[in-house]
Amino acid sequence: MEKGVRICIGILAVLISPLLSGCIGSDALANLGLNRGIPGGLTLACLDGSTYTSMVVEIDYEAGYEPESTSTDLLIERLESVCDKPQGIELKLTETDFENEDIWSPDNVRDAGWDAKSHDPRDDSTLYWQVIFPAGVYEDSSVLGVAVDASTIAIFKDSIDDAENFFRRPSAEKIENSVLVHEFGHLLGLVNTVYTSPADHEDSSHPGHSNNEDSVMYWAIESSSIANFFDNDLPTEFDLDDKQDLQGLADGSIPCTDQLWKP
Who is most buried in 124, 176, 192, 212, counting CB within 10 A? Predict the structure, then answer.
């Protein structure tokens, strides 16, 4: 019998509206049996540049659900800051009919993602990671993004639009920026998904997430005052602990488990 493991984060409300949430959704048996891995399973392949010298972020989106250019530009900037890819990181955008405009489960996301992939995650010297932007919502409608295996995530723009508060501060665009970087952070193994950090920065009540509200990997975007939300201020960067974890994984000083590839 399959055993599902799902760790979700939710964003606290401003007034009565949810703001931002992310989720790790994985099925260990299905992913490992098909060699798809768990979120973080290709961490070393991204951080190391000796074998996979380039990277493509494949974006498959339903008509009308193309991501904001500010979000994709920010994502590439964040990945370039931590991943060793001497031949560069590029985007490939493809309009895709996912034939599902209703409710999405982790299995739905995983199957749709793999059906739409143009390449295996590891193809010659190129690493491929993928994000799908489908119509519809996750089975937990408070979830705005989900990582389902070592190379696949989904972002739910319908839910992001619904999360935007009356004053549009933060705006749906700002929310998307944070959610997209956050979910790719899970593909990088953050926080403590495929390693144990020497720093005490994982939220004990929300495994896989940071306890620092200034990190994009924070378990919930929770401002110290309501004014910060109205300033459109949401974190989009990995904090120092996140970056030191990734550096330790890259140089081997922090052991890394559950990898589909090792240098």
Answer: 176
CA distance readout (Å), 112 to 41, 61, 137, 245: 19, 11, 14, 31
pLDDT tens by residue, 7-40: 333 332 322 233 344 467 645 444 544 689 999 9
| CB-count exposure of residue 243 (10 Å: 0-12, 13-18, 19+) | middle
- Domains (range + CATH), the chain: 26-251 (3.40.390.10)
| Amino acid in position 164 | E
Question: Could you tell me the pTM of the whole model?
Answer: 0.86
Residues with Cβ within 8 Å of 184's Cβ and at least 6 positions away in sequence, in order, are: 75, 78, 79, 129, 131, 153
